[in-house]
Design brief:
Largest sheet: 8 strands, parallel, barrel
Strand order of the largest sheet: 1-2-7-10-11-12-13-14
Distance between the termini: 11 Å
Helix content: 40-55%
Radius of gyration: 21 Å
Strand content: 15-25%
Number of strands: 14
Number of helices: 16
Length: about 400
């Protein structure tokens, strides 16, 4: 089974040789290196700094022209990374970039109230964003990566830092839908009464903000239809056309540059990132909420990364199997596992390694063709050491 370890560019400050020595020592056949940086502040247990501040930007040469230009970060030492004979994959965050969003707020998500309150979330319906995504794909693929691993190439889940109002899952979902001019127009072109959908979302969410009781239960199409009406559900479904056509453009650009695209659906992270305890609905079944039509993408994309963020090996297997049923058995599936907390909560190292090994076996049995481990810079060294025995 193919394997790799996700590595942030800042991790290489430990020394490229040291990082690669460890990764090869774990038995991994490749490294999935962050080509784009995303604004964050991370605890890095064994890093050159124990708190690492990351900034938005791109780490490969950027072509001249284009309306949206990312900030430039130091380029990756690709020559050194390739010397070991490891596969080198280019991990690329596409539509999450606060620096671009702050400079060009008109390209970001606009909610049902007209607010542009998510500066990091670029709207995949905006023509400038679509042009930027294709340019980014080409810039990365031209560097000769074995694959381009696409993250955030779809609508983003709704998020916020503070909220004193008890929003239910469906209220939060309606709050996060984009109603910018381009989204409204694309939905209308598909026969959706987009203005009615926007008005209904504003009425429902506004009522909850004014003190109405929040909706109970998880987001499903049936529940959403009963709660918000058929036009809202039709509007949500229409977003898949926006994402599918954008992914098709990006995949074509990557192929033309001699690489291949691996598409990452963020639904698994939205469900299980915080605690490794995703709710009952499988990620593949809920991907539509982010505009991801896995059946359609199965005809476009050769490979998919499944964010299997779960403590339970059986849940990992169920998620992988559901993706395979959606995208087809001839598509590559890469299970992304976390070797430590919160997905591995064990009493001792032996037990922890056994649990990780059980998830590797479960992923393989369910149809995964590769397993990747997230992420070198975030996990303590004793946690990373579990990888070797889990692959045995």
């Amino acid at each position: 089974m193919d394997t790799s370890v996700y590595v942030f560019a800042e991790d290489l400050a430990e020394g490229v040789d040291q990082v690669l020595d460890r990764i090869t020592g774990y038995g991994a056949a490749g490294v999935t290196i962050a080509v784009t940086s995303e604004r964050s502040r991370d605890i890095t247990p064994h890093g050159a700094t124990r708190v690492t501040v990351r900034h938005d930007g791109v780490r490969v040469p950027w072509p001249e022209g284009g309306r949206l230009v990312p900030q430039k970060q130091p380029e990756l030492p690709l020559g050194e990374l390739r010397q070991r004979g490891l596969a080198v994959h280019g991990w690329t965050v596409f539509l999450r970039n606060a620096a671009i969003g702050e400079q060009h707020p008109q390209v970001t998500i606009r909610n049902c109230f007209g607010d542009r309150g998510s500066p990091a979330d670029l709207c995949p319906a905006h023509p400038d964003v679509r042009e930027y995504a294709v340019a980014l794909a080409r810039a990365v693929a031209r560097q000769g990566f074995d694959s381009v691993v696409a993250e955030a190439l779809h609508f983003s889940p709704f998020s916020y830092e503070r909220c004193a109002v008890p929003l239910g899952p469906m209220d939060a979902y309606l709050f996060g839908l984009c109603f910018c001019h381009h989204c409204l127009r694309r939905a209308a072109d598909l026969g959706v009464n987009a203005e009615v959908a926007r008005e209904e979302c504003g009425r429902i969410v506004g009522g909850v903000l004014d003190g109405d009781p929040p909706a109970q239960g998880e987001v499903t199409r049936a529940a959403l239809t009963a709660y918000a009406g058929p036009e809202v559900v039709a509007y949500a479904r229409a977003r898949s056309e926006t994402v599918t056509t954008l992914v098709a453009e990006v995949a074509a650009a990557v192929t033309e540059e001699g690489s291949r695209l691996t598409f990452t659906d963020g639904t698994g992270a939205a469900k299980g990132y915080a605690d490794g305890l995703p709710p009952a609905g499988l990620a593949a079944h809920d991907a539509w909420q982010l505009g991801v039509d896995l059946v359609a993408l199965g005809d476009i994309v050769p490979s998919f990364a499944v964010l299997a963020y779960a403590r339970d090996a059986a849940r990992v297997a169920d998620d992988i199997a559901a993706y395979q049923r959606s995208v087809g058995k001839d598509r590559g599936l890469r299970a992304v596992l976390r070797p430590g907390a919160p997905d591995i909560a064990a009493l001792g190292e032996t037990d922890a390694t056994d649990r990780l090994a059980a998830k590797v076996r479960a992923a393989k049995a369910a149809g995964a063709t590769g397993v990747d481990f997230f992420a070198y810079g975030l996990a303590p060294l004793n946690v990373l050491a579990r990888i070797k025995n889990s692959l045995g």
